[in-house]
Specification:
The complex is a heterodimer of chains A (742) and B (447).
Chain A: H1 20-25, E1 40-46, E2 52-58, H2 60-63, E3 68-73, E4 97-98, E5 104-110, H3 113-122, E6 124-129, H4 136-141, E7 145-153, H5 156-159, E8 166-174, E9 186-191, E10 197-201, H6 206-217, E11 224-228, H7 243-256, E12 260-263, H8 266-272, E13 279-287, E14 293-305, H9 311-320, E15 330-339, H10 353-371, H11 375-382, H12 402-413, H13 415-422, E16 429-441, E17 454-460, E18 466-470, H14 479-491, E19 498-500, H15 519-542, H16 549-558, E20 564-569, E21 576-577, E22 582-583, E23 589-601, E24 607-617, H17 624-643, E25 649-650, E26 653-654, E27 672-678, H18 695-698, H19 701-712, H20 723-731, H21 738-741
Parallel strand pairs in A: 1-12, 10-11, 14-15, 18-19, 24-27
Antiparallel strand pairs in A: 1-5, 2-4, 2-6, 3-5, 7-15, 8-13, 9-10, 9-12, 13-14, 16-23, 17-18, 17-20, 21-22, 23-24, 25-26
Chain B: E1 4-11, E2 14-21, H1 26-33, E3 52-55, E4 58-61, E5 74-76, H2 89-97, H3 106-119, H4 125-131, H5 143-152, H6 178-187, E6 193-195, H7 201-207, E7 215-217, E8 227-229, E9 233-237, H8 242-247, H9 249-254, H10 257-263, H11 268-273, H12 276-282, H13 290-294, E10 299-304, E11 307-312, H14 313-316, E12 317-319, E13 322-323, E14 330-337, E15 342-349, E16 360-369, E17 372-381, E18 388-389, H15 391-398, H16 401-415, H17 426-446
Parallel strand pairs in B: 1-5, 6-7
Antiparallel strand pairs in B: 1-2, 3-4, 3-5, 8-9, 9-14, 10-11, 10-14, 12-13, 15-16, 16-17, 17-18
Helix pairs in contact in B: 2-5, 15-16, 16-17
Classes of the chains: A alpha+beta (742), B alpha+beta (447).
């Protein structure tokens, strides 16, 4: 039967991933697995200094190394020495100055790995080291501000002086976080024989890479074709950062006329690719004695590193979400991202929210204690509901399932009983439960309007098989599966007739990036738009024939009906005023809350997470297996952020650049995780769906830290909550007995 | 340019003979020479497990092995798992349960799971986690991977019988007798470096502090294998792997802290390859096998073409990554005296539950007579340039009771000399030495 779009059959099903069989068989081809005939090895000579003037850069000797085919520095770049991102400050290769350790100074292509290593070593660079700004507070004092935003709502400063308010105050620090995708970045570029270039690689955003390559080579966009290979994880780390290796490989390919493979080692990837911004957040939060939030003042500072890349938009998202999913009538947010001589930070799942949410939720937990209220009750009391306004004055008229999320995770985790019972624990190892919540504006919002639309091309072949091309990417999150379901649902065909292609810039118009939990909504709606056109063409022929899909298609083919269409999705218009930080920051929000249960060893400071109940209002669950997978994966990344993950730097150089020193969770470190998926449909989303990619990571760390407080009575203001920090804080507690009187 | 060598092994039940560069890792030969690209290089240091293959029935990291170490062996890669187009039950379960996201870790994860199920067809939840502890995944949070392995377990033995093949015997790279190995060392003293597992040296090679072309493999030398119980001692061949030590009944009885320590090292892949001799020669103050040997008065047996010598364990290490081992010497094995009534424990703190390098470790061995300590050894790792024995701490413990323990804790705080580094702090390590001491002593007293 050709299903009418109103008869839901595929949405909500646990459809198996179409990409999984190749992945379990080992036949899926990642960038490292591709073999281009005659390809050269490409590599990058990188700065050992955080900040230096390049006095001399001589490539003559390197060019003379046998087997070396090309050596390129800034002055040999045929186009602009800029990778366009939010600002135009990011060079393809350093020119005159290096501004962070690991910045590319020259790129080399050679016949063999050995010749490449020799060629890189033979490039002669003379640096004049310059003083480096390595501390974000110092950078702020020096006026090195890349971007700033604010939110002004009511009179926060005045309200916070009210004598009837209980006010808590704190300064919170969060560390770098590494994406730690298991596949390092890599690209293979090859000349296309007509003056253009084709670049294959691991990436999230082919259209970003396309702009970067076109800019470096001075080519029109239609001469630069970018093809995404099966990508071994992204999490934001393959959003902005791959444009650099893409441009490097393309420069070498055009210079040599040969394919060039440029694949980063793990150490190189960790040292030079983007990361989550370290942050410092000051929070001052006031509520009435009954627990109604009245005012908040937040000062949010991010360390952007040497170049802006996506820092301004990361900061924007953190700024407008600074007070979480709560009603706060008086708000003042001051936020800045500063320039330092360190590796540029960029996109990472959560995108500027995890830092500020950690701070705000931690302050809320402290406020609950001061008020003598259950943290759940305090949140329920202030939870955003339909008709409420966010801190940017966005009145929410639909799809707000936050209260339901809070109530369901509390029930699933047995919150109330554990909260009371664990508070009485007195042993060496103590249990505790903590709660935290967040919301996340779906899509690119007010700051990314120009990138917002997305396209899809849907072609039905004569045998009834369907080819779907979109501009967003499968990076493991399950896009291919979800879009297969949406295509099947909207065309009325069986899902096994659908093939969603790998992203290729020659197949669809610029569809923006695969970020911000926008893929299901944007590409999904573009597919529905195309499918509606195809069905409109089919209807007159098949009318009420009741034919199965493949026969219906055959009939249409016989009648010479065109069964291909382009779909285009543009989100509803929003308005936003940057001067006041007021307006509709995003079209819609996903809501989330976590309960985390821990055991804290009060002698060693070790925290073991025993359980996580993670609730999400996702609008509509397109595929529960994938939804749970997003939650479980995001939660575990959040646990790493909470407990072990951070970078140590010396003179701007990252000291822990491998998996034995950058500590992510192993199979022995993960607790039981229960996903709670709540459906509060978003009418504009495909079948009511909104995004789920990011919320799972955001409110994990504050829930862990709240649980540690519940167990061990210590407040932590710095992530990660390492045993050393927990132990230090426990040692600093007043001896039992003094606490009550003090 | 490296030498060219001949290799012979079976890969996915097919006999393979090939000539390749001697400095290639098993991973390179699989990916480049045989175009089997299912094994992935996520880190090249045995940390992520994405390159896992099964060698002679055991999961190994193919990035931490020279190709010639697999000579004569049986290799299974992900490409050989499906039979005549039918997926292996594990592969089906990974698809069905949603265990696959980006997929880059999956070939290694599936093979680690297969090696586990081949040995233990019905693992419980804890065993499943332990069996996968050498594999990192950043997408799934592991939950659905555990479910998939559980789903595929208990469906009967799926073990593919190992096929054998005559080794190609790639020259001096893989001697098959002790004399041959010592001859290589004597002839090329200073130029070559022996490896057994390779799990430390190949990490150094990636960092540029060792050269792959200069290595040769002693893991096929039979004289280095075996764990033997003699009348008054237990002998542990230097080539014993952590897995073999973990599973040894003789060690569990006579040197119980040693198998406890082996059990927390790395993940299964590292334990299947890493050896006692390698751990000693590496000379790391954080090596987990060493405190148990200090606490057992172990004797290290060294051998060269010029003869043999015994070195007490406490005299073997001379500094951070420095030992008394001469360039032409090999560690033959370790002798541990038997001691009746011995109780011993190993405890440590790491940055996570698997694949962690110790921040502080302790081995305590005690013999009690009528409830009072009669003999005590305390050794600590990662708190000084070498593993140390804490003599004053031992003295305090000998006096017994709560007072003795309290004085021992003070003594151990004074006897350790920890530093601040990226793993921990001096103050924390110092206090944890005391905490772990108390926990170990209490456990032994109550045992």
């Amino acid at each position: 039967m050709v299903n009418s779009p109103s008869q839901r059959t595929v949405i909500g099903q646990r459809l198996r991933r179409p990409d999984a069989p190749d992945k379990v068989k080992g036949t899926a081809l990642y960038i490292e697995d591709l073999d281009f005939a005659g390809s050269l090895w490409g590599g990058v000579l990188r700065s050992p200094h955080a900040h230096a003037r390049i006095r001399k850069l001589d490539t003559a000797r390197a060019r003379g190394v046998p087997g070396v085919r090309a050596v390129i520095t800034a002055k040999e770049i045929p186009g602009r020495n800029v990778i366009p991102m939010v600002q135009s400050d990011w060079p393809v290769l350093a020119q005159d100055f290096v501004r962070h350790v690991g910045e590319g100074v020259a790129v080399v292509a050679a016949d063999t790995r050995e010749a490449l290593a020799e060629g890189l070593a033979a490039v002669q660079v003379e640096y004049e080291p310059l003083p480096a700004l390595l501390d974000m507070e110092e950078a702020l004092a020096a006026g090195e501000v890349m971007a700033r935003y604010k939110v002004r709502r009511g009179e926060a400063s005045v309200a916070l002086t009210r004598s009837d308010l209980i006010v808590v105050e704190g300064t919170y620090q969060t560390p770098y976080q590494e994406h730690a995708y298991i596949e390092p970045n890599g690209m293979i570029a090859a000349p296309d024989g007509t003056g253009g270039v084709v670049v294959h690689g691991s990436m999230q955003c082919p259209f970003y890479v396309q702009k970067g390559v076109a800019s470096a080579l001075g080519l029109d966009l239609n001469r630069v074709r970018i093809v995404q290979t099966v990508t071994g994880g992204g999490f934001g780390g393959k959003e902005d950062a791959p444009s650099a290796p893409g441009a490097h490989a393309a420069l070498l390919a055009m210079a040599t006329g040969r394919p060039v493979r440029l694949i980063l080692t793990r150490e190189e990837d960790m040292a030079v690719m983007s990361k989550r911004h370290p942050a410092r957040v000051q929070v001052k939060l006031g509520a009435t004695r009954h627990g109604h939030l009245i005012a908040a003042e937040i000062d949010y500072l991010l360390d952007g590193g040497a170049y802006a890349t996506l820092s301004p938009v990361v900061l924007f998202r953190g700024t407008v979400h600074a007070c979480g999913p709560y009603r706060v009538p008086n708000v003042k947010v001051e936020s800045r991202v500063v320039r330092t001589h360190k590796v540029p930070c960029g996109a990472f799942r959560g995108f500027g929210e995890p830092q500020v949410v950690f701070a705000f939720e931690a302050a809320l937990d402290e406020l609950a204690e001061r008020l003598g209220q259950d943290p759940l009750v305090l949140r329920l009391k202030n939870a955003l509901q339909i008709g409420d306004e966010t801190i940017t004055g966005h009145r929410l008229s639909e799809s707000v399932g936050f209260r339901e999320v809070l109530e369901q995770v509390a029930a699933a985790s047995d919150w109330k009983r554990k909260r009371e019972e664990y508070a009485r624990e007195r042993g060496t190892v103590r249990r505790g439960v903590g709660l935290a919540a967040c919301y996340y504006g779906v899509g690119l919002g007010a700051m990314g309007k120009h990138l917002n639309p997305a396209g899809a091309n849907v072609v039905v072949a004569g045998d009834g098989s369907v080819t779907v091309a979109v501009g967003t990417t499968e990076i493991g999150q399950g896009m291919v599966t979800v879009l297969t379901q949406i295509a099947a649902e909207s065309l009325g065909c069986p899902p096994d007739a659908v093939r969603v292609m790998e992203a290729d810039t020659s197949r669809v118009p610029d569809s923006g990036p695969t970020v911000a939990s926008r893929t299901t909504v944007m590409s999904g709606n573009a597919i529905r738009d195309a499918a509606a056109k195809i069905r409109a063409a089919m209807e007159p022929v098949i009318a009420d024939s009741g034919l199965p899909w493949r026969e219906a298609v055959a009939l249409c083919v016989q009648k010479q009906i065109g069964l291909a269409a382009h779909g285009w999705a543009v989100p509803p218009a929003t308005t936003f005023d940057l001067a006041t930080g007021q307006g509709e920051a995003y079209v819609c929000y996903s809501f989330s809350a976590n309960v985390v249960e821990v055991e804290v060893d009060t002698e060693t400071g070790e925290t073991r997470v025993k359980g996580v109940w993670s609730g999400h209002d996702v609008g509509r669950v397109v595929n529960p297996t994938l939804g749970e997978g997003q939650v479980e994966g995001g939660v575990v990344q959040g646990l790493g952020y909470a407990l072990t993950e951070e970078h140590a730097l010396r003179d701007g150089r990252i000291l822990n650049d491998q998996f034995s020193t950058y500590i992510i969770p192993t199979p022995l470190d993960v607790p039981e995780i229960k996903s709670v998926l709540v459906e509060s449909p978003f009418p504009w989303g495909p079948y009511g769906a909104k995004g789920l990619g990011e919320t799972p990571i955001i409110a994990v760390a504050p829930a862990v830290v709240a649980a540690i407080h519940h167990a061990a009575r210590i407040r932590l203001y710095t992530l990660p909550a390492t045993p050393e920090r927990v132990w230090d804080a426990i040692r600093a507690l007043p001896p039992p007995g003094e606490a009550a009187s003090g | 340019m490296a030498d060219v060598i001949d290799l012979a092994f079976t890969v996915n039940r097919q006999q393979v003979r090939l000539r390749t560069r001697s400095d290639k890792r098993l991973l390179d030969v699989l990916r480049e020479d045989l175009r089997l690209t299912g094994a992935k290089e996520g880190c090249g240091k045995g940390e992520c497990g994405a390159c896992t293959v099964i060698l002679d029935g055991q999961a190994v990291d193919s990035c931490l092995m020279m190709a010639y170490q697999a000579d004569g062996g049986d290799v299974q890669t992900i490409e050989g798992l499906a039979e005549s187009g039918r997926l292996h039950p594990l592969q089906d379960a990974f698809i069905e349960k949603g265990g696959v996201q980006c997929g880059i870790c999956i070939p290694g994860m599936v093979l680690a799971a297969k090696a586990m199920l081949d040995r233990d067809p019905e693992p419980d939840a804890a065993a499943i986690r332990a069996g996968l502890a050498g594999n990192l995944c950043r997408c799934t949070g592991y939950t659905k991977i555990f479910e998939a392995v559980e789903e595929a377990s208990g469906v009967g033995s799926l073990k593919i019988p190992a096929s054998s093949m005559t080794p190609a015997a790639p020259g001096y790279f893989r001697p098959r007798t002790l004399d041959d190995a010592l001859e290589v060392l004597a002839q090329r003293s200073g130029e070559v470096r022996p490896i057994a597992g390779g799990t430390d040296v190949l990490v150094q090679a990636k960092d540029g502090t060792a050269r792959r072309a200069s290595l040769f493999d002693v893991s096929a030398v039979p004289e280095l294998k075996d764990i033997r119980e003699a009348e008054d001692h237990v002998w542990i061949g230097a080539g014993s792997t952590h897995t073999e030590m973990m599973e040894s009944k003789a060690l569990a009885r006579w040197v119980p802290a040693l198998p406890q320590a082996c059990a927390v090292i790395g993940g299964p892949q590292i334990r299947n390859r890493g050896t006692l001799g390698g751990n000693l020669a590496h000379g790391s103050p954080a090596a987990d096998t060493v405190p148990p040997l200090f606490a057992a008065d172990a004797i290290v047996e060294l051998v060269s073409v010029n003869g043999r010598r015994d070195v007490p364990i406490a005299e073997f290490f001379t500094g951070v990554r420095e030992t008394v081992l001469a360039p032409d010497e090999l560690i033959l094995g370790v002798r541990v005296p038997k001691r009746a009534g011995l109780r011993a424990a190993f405890l440590r703190l790491g940055q996570r539950q698997a694949q962690a390098i110790s921040k502080v470790s302790i081995a305590v061995a005690m013999v009690f007579q009528d409830g009072r300590p009669e003999w005590v050894r305390v050794a600590l790792g990662a708190v000084a340039p070498t593993v140390i024995r804490a003599l004053e701490t031992e003295k305090a413990l000998m006096s017994g009771g709560y007072e003795g323990l309290k004085r021992a804790k003070d003594a151990v705080r004074a006897e350790v000399h920890p530093i601040d580094d990226i793993r921990s702090t001096q103050a924390y390590r110092r206090e944890m030495a005391a905490v772990l001491l108390e926990r170990a002593v209490r456990a032994l007293a109550e045992a």
